[in-house]
Design brief:
It contains 16 helices and ten strands. With 356 residues, the protein is an alpha+beta fold. Bound molecules: iron/sulfur cluster (SF4) (2 copies).
């Protein structure tokens, strides 16, 4: 009979074959995280992400979400595209200095990670079952009812940085997380000690001051939230701070010194696709809905839809115009009569602020 420590070693080996970088095991008692979660929700920092609150205490109680769960296998998958240069942080910062270029967050330039991780977690569970026999399980990735970062940090995938993401001394923070809730008792892995020290680079660089204190993120101010999750008008006072970021924001991770150790993906899936990097805002703003669907097929960007995409690009064009990009005004003018009131309002804001 194979022992539980040996099972974990086998899971690690099987996971590596599937492109995962590290496996950890967490227990299911997350009660010490519950109070912090409830307070974050009570303060409204989750904005319109109502799904964060919808699952109540089940988020912090894996065995309530999936009855029978006694352990959680956590998995980490590095996502930097395979062609990432060594000085990638400088390369990405340089994009911010080119206001006419639209910036899509690094993790979203390739295939939709939800699909990649979900299918690989399912394969991992199958392969484990082939070795240890059938067991109850359910896989998650970036899933609302799961306290993903908490499970990851408890199981040794890294510590929670002051920006609230999980980071590791050997891998930085440029990785996706996934979990398999299992009904098989496995020995928990040890958490790592935090190494932020006196650094505050992520807090200092955040364009919208969304990290209001170490380990406290007001999602309502975060550009990732505003450009992806947030459905309506972007708050006026934050628009000019968004710059040319049209889908997500990497700044707090670009500034983090540990990300010089971030790893490239073992898989081709996250390689940047044509059409999503280095493109001018004017071109992106001209996309019809059919173009949007074609260029974002299989990409996580598709989830926000064409209207939200145009809203984001309109704001970036306004910021480009203010920064002196001559082509931005003509691009904005093409959608003054857009069918969407949301898009029209952002276009008018962009034209007005740049005139003022
Ligand atoms: S993603 Fe951008 S806006 Fe959000 S906390 Fe990090 S630096 Fe701030
Ligand atoms: S930038 Fe500094 S404070 Fe922020 S997560 Fe990285 S090490 Fe920690």
């Amino acid at each position: 009979m194979i022992g539980s420590h040996q099972i974990v070693n086998r899971i690690q080996a099987l996971a590596r074959e599937l492109g995962f970088s590290q496996i950890g095991i967490a227990g299911v008692d997350l009660s010490s995280a519950e109070a912090g979660l409830m307070q974050w929700l009570a303060e409204g920092f989750h904005g319109e992400m109502h799904y964060m609150a919808a699952h109540g205490t089940r988020r912090a109680r894996p065995a309530e979400l999936v009855p029978g769960t006694v352990s959680v296998i956590t998995a980490r998958m590095d996502y930097l595209p395979r062609a990432t240069p060594d000085d990638w942080q400088a390369v990405e910062f340089a994009r911010l200095e080119r206001p006419g270029e639209g910036i899509v967050s690094l993790y979203a330039r390739g295939r939709d990670y939800h699909k990649v991780l979900r299918s690989r977690l399912a394969k991992l569970a199958e392969r484990i079952a082939a070795e240890v026999g059938p067991f109850g399980h359910r896989a998650f990735t970036d899933s609302a009812p799961v306290l993903e970062a908490e499970l990851a940090s408890r199981s040794g995938q890294g510590w929670r940085g002051k920006h609230t993401l999980v980071l590791d001394r050997e891998a930085g923070s440029m990785f996706f997380l996934g979990e398999i809730y299992v009904d098989m008792a496995l020995p928990p892995s040890e958490p790592v000690t935090p190494h932020c020290g006196s650094c505050s680079a992520c807090i200092d660089i955040c364009p919208t001051r969304a990290i209001i204190a170490p380990h406290r993120l007001d999602a309502r101010r975060c550009i990732s939230y505003l450009t992806i999750e947030h459905a309506g008008a972007i708050p006026l006072e934050l628009r000019s701070l968004i710059g040319n970021r049209i889908y997500g924001c990497d700044d707090c991770q670009l500034a983090c010194p540990w990300n010089k150790f971030a790893k490239k993906s073992a898989l081709p899936d996250f390689d940047a696709r044509d059409g999503l990097t280095g493109r001018q805002l004017g071109e992106l703003f001209a996309w019809t809905e059919a173009d949007f669907l074609r260029f974002t097929e299989g990409s996580p960007i598709r989830r926000i839809g064409h209207e939200r995409w145009l809203r984001n690009v309109a704001v970036a064009l306004g910021n480009a115009l203010r920064a002196g990009d001559p082509g931005a005004r003509a691009a904005l003018a093409t959608r003054r009569a857009d069918a969407s009131a949301l898009v029209r309002e952002h276009v008018e804001w962009s034209l007005a602020v740049s005139a003022g």
